[in-house]
Design goal:
With 353 residues, this protein is of the alpha/beta class. It has twelve helices and eight strands.
């Protein structure tokens, strides 16, 4: 069994693939206020569709649901049919960083627990062109809840999600990306555990009981358990937050540059082999008024290096990820990270030359 196969065997069949609950999704929807109907809705990184189905029920509007992993989408299709929602849910397998949707196609973009795969501001920059005038975005993002977090979670998340910011920082990012922040909603601690961590913890125990676990896969299991431990002990210092946004038609957008790399936390990524970056074509989006008159500004060399924002051969990347996982198991994390830093320095040097 490969690390990718092991990863998906852990998450397939779980109620959710990340923190959340029907109550929180419903409350976020309520706080968006009266949305004009009929609505055109897209759910990005939908997983097995817990939020998709609630949106279809509550809005009685068609929902386009996109995820990369086919078994998650198969579960969504079965549940939609069982609930009599099949006619409202259009399921598509794909990468939400490389959408080919017509601009202004949607009134509401929804995404729970997926934006961090590319980074909060980068995701909003990518998705903004999808929205029709007066459009809205609702997304959850892992955020610091205190100004000065304890050393242990700070060090852990610095490695796992270097781009993680507090609520004020994400509000500023949303405004830079061309949105008004209507409201924020911090998910309760139970949203981590009831439908996500507790079922996942039982699945990990069953997996160990029924498999001879190689070192490479044990590293994934152990890192997942370490993440659970962080949440268990420090949930008052960080958490998932709903950001409820409205398109700002008058925003003057600047070129987007991400100051931090995106998430490297494999235990939280639904598709560890395809955690995507935005393409260079989409990394910076001009204002809606000038998009037709001028192309997107060029991406700086720094952005291309720091976010690896270049065209990617996914087959090669998947193989590199597998090899790095093996290195972690064989050399230990510290030595493997040192080796990765040396490779990165060589790549930067070759680009600068």
């Amino acid at each position: 069994m490969t690390p990718e196969e092991a990863f998906f065997s852990l998450y397939e069949g779980l109620p959710r693939q990340g923190p959340g609950s029907e109550a929180s999704t419903h409350e976020a929807l309520r706080r968006l206020g009266n949305l004009k109907k009929p609505l055109r809705v897209i759910d990005l990184g939908c997983g097995s569709g817990a939020s998709t189905l609630l949106l279809a029920r509550e809005l009685n509007s068609p929902i386009v649901a996109i995820d990369q992993h086919a078994p998650f989408l198969e579960a969504l299709a079965a549940n939609a049919e069982q609930e009599g929602l099949k006619a409202l849910v259009q399921i598509r397998q794909g990468d939400f960083t490389q959408l080919e949707e017509t601009p202004y196609s949607y009134d509401l973009v929804w995404s729970e627990g997926a934006a961090y795969l590319v980074g909060f501001e980068a995701a909003l920059t990518l998705w903004r062109p999808l929205l029709a005038p007066e459009g809205h975005v609702a997304l959850t993002e892992l955020s610091w809840l205190v100004q000065t977090p304890s050393d242990e979670p700070r060090v852990f998340w610095k490695k796992a999600y270097p781009g993680m910011r507090d609520i004020a920082g994400n509000r500023s990012s949303a405004e830079r990306a061309g949105f008004k922040v209507l409201d924020t909603l911090t998910l309760p601690n139970d949203d981590w555990w009831n439908e996500y961590y507790r079922p996942l913890r039982r699945r990990i125990a069953a997996f160990r009981a029924s498999h001879t676990v190689p070192k490479t896969i044990e590293a994934i299991l152990s890192e997942t358990e370490r993440e659970m431990d962080m949440v268990e002990r420090y949930s008052k210092e960080f958490g998932y937050v709903f950001y409820l946004l409205e398109l700002d038609e008058n925003a003057q957008l600047e070129e987007y540059e991400d100051e931090e790399p995106v998430s490297t936390q494999r235990s939280s990524i639904r598709d560890p082999g395809k955690a995507s970056q935005a393409s260079t074509r989409e990394a910076a989006t001009p204002s809606r008024r000038t998009r037709a008159a001028a192309g997107a500004p060029p991406v700086s060399r720094r952005t291309m290096i720091e976010t690896m924002n270049v065209p990617i051969d996914w087959e090669v990347r998947n193989e590199l990820e597998r090899k790095f996982t093996q290195l972690v198991a064989e050399l230990g994390l510290a030595r493997a990270e040192l080796l990765l830093a040396q490779i990165r320095a060589r790549v930067e040097s070759s680009i600068d030359s």
